[in-house]
């Protein structure tokens, strides 16, 4: 039966494929694709684990004391019966051989399918057998853990949560459906195995959504019922433009979306022609288009999209999912150098670690440890609470700066005392390198303006820093008191709220007046519906995911910046900017 699930549109485009539902059960296992030549070994691994459990249960039965309750024997019989079920074995073999799932993934996928069948049964006794099945599967999984796969996953999985390591997937386009995905999980998608993804939780500028946009694959988040309503292997259409997921589409709907998918591709091809066109407004104003990246290797996509530098390298992605084993100075230095090399001499803005809130270092760091993680130990606060780690990062960045143009950006500053502590740490990092006699380069210093307090005291920031970068994602979150990752308040997360626009306008004006560089690196910079307004407010530097650069450039080429100025002031001074913006 065809039905639609609504969520938030976070990454453009249309994806059509079969659902891969990542179970959010208590049995968290690694998920990875095997190669076709590994199928037999993987099937054998599943079979051996199952046989080992059968032997174990038989032994238990034989050794059962005479006075043990009869129910126990009967229960073991049920478990043995489930284990020996040919249909189960067959289904697991199919997931492995046809989808190239690893054995654990195949087993939990089938468990989920059977569990749903149990849930739908009228007979209470039979419904309760679901628990037995889960116990049996858990036993098999334990045996598999003991007998490690001969095929090691291509990426070390993070602890807990859906763990994905992706390589060599099958031919059918696959769409990932999960309750939640951490930004670290999302990074593992970079190999583009999935054609799209859907999560039940998350907001438009949650970091998970941001990573999806950076990969340029259609995505819908906050589709609350998705992981309950969508079944393994269902055909799905993700409409990332509208935030809709269509489950089990009819051939007519499929044809319609196939058509729209081709239209989107044509539009992309058309935009690609703008790559070498200089980014100038109609009245000749030069506008700098920079890239936001998460990993050193992302530089290639940035150059391909015509970026003239990196405006935001979210360095925290180097630190995530490493079970506390953080990268040292040397490893970071190499990563920053790689990013610089990738940008072929163009400037790279490296932002120091911004972890906490919806970017946990590890799954082990509980998200809700504090009542308001977004207001807690995040970003620069984290760095200033662990100055040894902070200076390790600063030294690595300074050393990389000996090889190219590096700009150093600090996240979430709000207090003058934080600015001074931060700069003191930088001086200390420089003298540590001096003592060691290690070469390092000069860097321009910048601050993110992403807390209303910082926007309101922008002139103080301008005294300390060479450049500013407005982080609208957090600026909106903190101005409107809306958790950017919470889909239940996503409708109130409004980039066009007059209070947000006034803060953005004032920061741009103050920086321009002081003759300092000013950029926007939040998602607002890549939103084509905001391009004209930002130009009218005097912004000449935009930093966004490479996938958005050409669409924004198209808006710039069509804009007359001088004519936009008075209109932009009217929008900012209006009580309902959205209405004016639409005209
Ligand atoms: C922002 O807050 O706008 C920003 C660019 O930083 P992040 O999204 O990484 O918090
Ligand atoms: Mg931010």
Please render the helix and strand layout as text.
Blueprint: E1 3-6, E2 8-11, E3 14-22, E4 30-32, H1 39-62, H2 70-83, H3 86-99, H4 103-119, H5 124-146, E5 163-165, E6 174-178, H6 183-187, E7 194-199, H7 207-215, E8 219-221, H8 226-229, E9 235-239, E10 244-247, H9 251-272, E11 288-293, H10 299-304, E12 310-314, H11 329-342, E13 348-351, H12 379-385, H13 387-400, E14 406-410, H14 416-436, E15 443-449, H15 452-456, H16 458-464, E16 467-470, H17 472-480, H18 498-514, E17 517-520, H19 528-536, E18 541-544, H20 546-557, H21 561-573, H22 577-581
Parallel strand pairs: 3-6, 4-5, 6-7, 7-8, 11-12, 11-18, 12-13, 13-14, 14-15, 15-16, 16-17
Antiparallel strand pairs: 1-10, 2-8, 3-9, 9-10
Bound molecules: phosphoenolpyruvate and magnesium ion.
Keyphrases for this structure?
TIM Barrel; single chain; alpha/beta; eight-stranded parallel sheet; eight-stranded mixed sheet; globular; Glucose Oxidase, domain 1; 3 domains; binds magnesium ion; 15% strand; 583 residues; binds phosphoenolpyruvate; Enzyme I, Chain A, domain 2; 22 helices
Question: Please, could you describe this protein's structure?
Answer:
This protein is of the alpha/beta class and 583 residues long. It has three domains: 138 residues, Phosphohistidine domain (Glucose Oxidase, domain 1, 3-Layer(bba) Sandwich), CATH 3.50.30; 112 residues, Enzyme I, Chain A, domain 2, CATH 1.10.274; 303 residues, TIM Barrel, CATH 3.20.20.60. 46% of the residues lie in helices and 15% in strands. It is built from 22 helices and 18 strands. Strands 1-10-9-3-6-7-8-2 form an eight-stranded mixed beta sheet. Helix 1 runs antiparallel to helix 3 and helix 1 packs across helix 5. The radius of gyration is 26 Å and the shape is globular.
